[in-house]
Amino acid sequence: MYxxxxxxxxxxxxxxxxxxxxxxxxxxxxxxLLSKKNSNSNSPPSPWxxxxxxxxxxxxxxxxxxxxxxxxxxxxxxxxxxxxAPTLVASSPESAKQxxxxxxxxxSNRPYSAISNRLLYNYKDLSQTPYSPYWRQMRAIxxxxxxxxxxxxxxxxxxxxxxxxxxxxxxxxxxxxxxxFGAVLGTVNVADFIPWLGWVNRFNxxxxxxxxxxxxxxxxxxxxxxxxxxxxxxxxxxxxxxVDVLLQIQRETxxxxxxxxxxxxxxxxxxxxxxxTTYTALEWTMTEILRHPRVMEKLQQEIRVILGDERNVNxxxxxxxxxxxxxxxxxxxxxxxxxxxVPRESTQDVKVQGYDVPEKTRVIVNAWAIGRDPKRWGDGxxxxxxxxxxxxxxxxxxxxx
Length: 401
What we know:
Strand order of the largest sheet: 1-2-6-3
Region (Disordered): 379-401
Mean pLDDT: 82
Transmembrane segments: 6-27
Low-confidence stretches: 1-8, 396-401
Radius of gyration: 25 Å
Structural class: mainly alpha
GO molecular function: heme binding; iron ion binding; monooxygenase activity; oxidoreductase activity, acting on paired donors, with incorporation or reduction of molecular oxygen
Number of helices: 19
Keywords: Iron, Membrane, Metal-binding, Transmembrane, Transmembrane helix
Number of strands: 6
Order of helices and strands: HHHEEHHHHHHHHHHHHHHEEEEHH
Helix content: 55-70%
Distance between the termini: 72 Å
C-alpha cells in the first residue's frame, strides 16, 4: 500500500512523466483494440508485434534481407504492421503473380508518401502517383508517345552519347545530385507509418533536407524545360528528346493535364529511375565479374571475338553478345536494383492465395528474395557462375531486360 502511495505521489509531482505515461497507455490500448478489430482467422500469418511500432523494429538496416528471413518462418505471404499501416509481404513468384497480375486492379494504388509527394510535384509523375484517371492518361502518354518501339529507337543516338558520358564520369569518379535525390526518396519517413509523429521531421532535419533537394532539382528542371521551349521547331524528329516530345504533347493537349510541373515530374521519373538503377546494376555486375575470374575470362573472349579491332560499341554489337546479356540477367536476379518493388495498396477487399486481404493494405514484393529462392535456383545464391549461363550461342524467347 505504501509503495502504491509513493507511486501516485511521484507522478502527481511530475506532470510531464504522468502525461508521458498516460499517452503511452492510451496509444497501447488503441493499438490493441485496432489489432483485435483487424484480426481475422483467415488473415495471412503474422509475427508478433510491438505496441505503436508494430513490426518496424524487425526491418533493420537491410529490410529486404530481414523480410526474407521472416518469410522463412512465416511463409512466402505474410502480414506485418508497420506502425499503423498493415503491410502484406510477397516473397515468392506465385504470391507476386497474384498481386501484380491476377489481382492487379485491386492492387493498382500506391500508398501515400509525404517525401514522394513533395519531390514529385504533388504526385504529377507516373511511378508514384495513385491510381486515377490522371494516372491512366499519363501512362497512355508514356507508352504511346515516349516509350513506343519507334520512339525508343529514335532515342538511340542520345543513349550512345549518354553511355560515353557515363564512361567518362566513371573514369573521373564523379558523383551527381541524383545520389542525394535517391537517398532522400528512399529515406524511411516515420510520418508515413506513425502519422502523429510527423513533427519529428522538423527536428531531425528531414524536412529541410527534402526542401533543399526539391529546390535544387526544380531549378535545374526549369532550366531544362525552358531551354527546350526556346528551341521548339529547330530540331528534326531524330534530334528530339523526351522533353521535346512532352512539350509537343502539351501544345496538342486541349486540357491542362500536361502542365509544366507534369513535364518536370515525368522527366524526373525517367531521369532518376533510369540513372540510379543503371549505376546500381553496373556496380553489382562488375563486382560479380571480379569475384568470378572464369566468367570474366569468357566475357573477355566473347568481346574480343565480336569486336575485333573495333573500339566503338553500339547496340547492334551488344545484341550479338549472348554471354554478356546472360551474365547481366543473372546479376539482375541476384542483385535487383530495387530489391523491394515500389509499394502498392489495395483498393478493395481481396483474397490472395486463400487469405483475406482488406482494403487499404500496403503491399511489398520482395524481388530480392524471389531471385534467391532455393526451391527454384538451387544454390544459385553464391553469385554469377560460369555454368549458370549458356555455353553455346542461340536465340531464346522470354521477357528480357
